[in-house]
Amino acid sequence: MHLAEYLALRPVPGAGVVMALTGRCPLACAHCSTDASADGLDPPAGALLRFAESFAGPHPPSVALLTGGEPLLRPRLVRDLAERCRAAGTAAFVLTGMFWARTARVPAPVAAALDAVDHVSASLDAFHEREVPRRAVFTALRRLLDTGKDVSLHLLADGPGGPAGAGVDEVVAAVRGEFGDRVPMLVGRLAAVGRGSSLLPEPDAGSSAVAPPCAMAAWPVVAVDGTVTACCNQHVLDRRPVPGHLLLGHAASDTWTDIRGRTVGSPALRAVRTLGPHALARTAADGSGGPGDPGGPGRSGCDVCRSLRSGPAPRVAASAEALEGPVLRLQELAGPAGFARRYGSARHAGLVLLGGPSCAG
Question: Any idea where the Radical SAM core domain is (predicted)?
Answer without folding.
Answer: 21-150
